[in-house]
Amino acid sequence: MQTNASVVSFRSVEKSFGALKVLDGVDFEVARGEVLVIIGRSGSGKSTALRCIDRFETIDSGEIVVCGHRVSDPKLDLRRLRQDVGIVFQSYNLFPHLTIEENITLAPCAVKRISKAEAKRKARQVLAQVGLEDKLNSYPEQLSGGQQQRAAIARSLAMQPKVMLFDEVTSALDPELTGEVLKVIETLAADGMTMVMVTHEMGFAKGIANQVVFMHRGKVREAGPASILTSPATSELAQFVGTGL
Amino acid sequence: MNLNLDFGAILERWPMFLDGAILTLQLASLATILGAVIGILGAIGRRSRNPVIVRICGIYVEAIRNTPLLVQIFLVYFGLASLGLKFSAFAVAALALTINVGAYATEIIRAGFDSIPRGQIEAAEGLALSRTQIYWHIVLLPAIEKVYPALTSQFVLLMLASSVTSQISAEELTAVANFVQSDTYRAFETYILVAVLYILLSLIMRLGFWLLGLAIFPRRRRLRTAL
């Protein structure tokens, strides 16, 4: 059932890389303001599923609708879709030759055609949101990994997306830096941002998720509220979260 | 062994050498600027999604890189003449050198483009930038920065290779030397002087590229990292 409040919906999504079926009939639904956490082993298809939302991967069959855009439609206007969807990657991917401010103002100026002054004002605002107001004129290489990742989040926020995607955004960070990035994400969630994230931080997932999807061999093996992490119904999820059976 | 050097007659003719050196520098500058533009367009073409464009750019690069510069110069010179087009020796020389260095620049800049991590492009795509905007804002400058030493060396090599255009009587430095040595019979001295002048021209070009680098790569300047 797709309701009006649904921001992301997957219906019977299938995708193969050659002979390998990475998504094998995946269904889920993310409502506005909801946080969906996708977990699973490496190779279970969780990152692929996330990347399909922004159409970094195309699907073989099924249907994906994101903010009213039919992502599975080959005639889709990709740039319209991507203005509504923010994505943050594991490797930050800040633009090394631009200052943090330039990293943030580039897309609002080039894509949304807002004025330079307005973009700079917005940059200050989003940097304050992630606690990096003082790094405006720094270059990415002058920042720690955690700061770079927070700057990347700010860069996405400046486009005022309707949904944010986080693809293992703390996997390259040590526990301390992970903490500062997760705190930023928690604040976003508290502000009502719709989010889909792939993470291995189980403790964090428990605290933030409205909905958890556990993927196993390209299928949604188990889905439900965050409580499934503490009381899993399937042996695979039990094994994955380490409670054992 | 009796080495008898006499630079008197040579140095008397310094205004000719100066004119020749200036013409060489003009040829090199023109070919560098136009060659860089061709190089950027060629590199974009070689990575195009249109196989015909990829093929055309590939043929251009391979044809130029596998034939001697002198032959290319004659092809342009006689080619234009047989089409009934009349150009000055300077214009023909500049055109031939541009075509030549454009092919080398294409390959070097393409290597720079290929060195940009996929994640950079994805981040830009994720921000809804268009393909053109991505090339312009994200790919071009870091790519050129990566290959800047190789690219600028190629342009200095081109300046040195421009001596070959004396063959179609472009009045650059080597042509001046040929003239002066046949006038003075002081061939060895003439070419010693010309060699020194070429070294100076190379240094001028390298200085120019260094200053240009400071201007177009502000991060390098601000973080004081070597190019």
Automatic annotation (TrEMBL), chain A:
Keywords: Amino-acid transport, ATP-binding, Cell membrane, Membrane, Nucleotide-binding, Transport. Belongs to the ABC transporter superfamily. GO terms for molecular function: ATP binding. Residues 8-242 form the ABC transporter domain. It is found in: Cell membrane. The keyword Protein biosynthesis does not apply. It comes from the Bacteria. InterPro entries: AAA+_ATPase, ABC_ATPase_HisP-typ, ABC_transporter-like_ATP-bd, ABC_transporter-like_CS, MetN_ABC_transporter-like, P-loop_NTPase. The keyword Cell membrane applies. It is a peripheral membrane protein. This is Amino acid ABC transporter ATP-binding protein. Its main location: membrane.
TrEMBL record, chain B:
This is Amino acid ABC transporter permease. The chain crosses the membrane at residues 20-44, 190-217. Gene3D superfamilies: MetI-like (1.10.3720.10). It is a multi-pass membrane protein. CDD domains: TM_PBP2. Its main location: membrane. It is found in: Cell inner membrane; Cell membrane. Belongs to the binding-protein-dependent transport system permease family. HisMQ subfamily. SUPFAM superfamilies: MetI-like. Keywords: Cell membrane, Membrane, Transmembrane, Transmembrane helix, Transport. Residues 21-209 form the ABC transmembrane type-1 domain. The keyword Secreted does not apply.
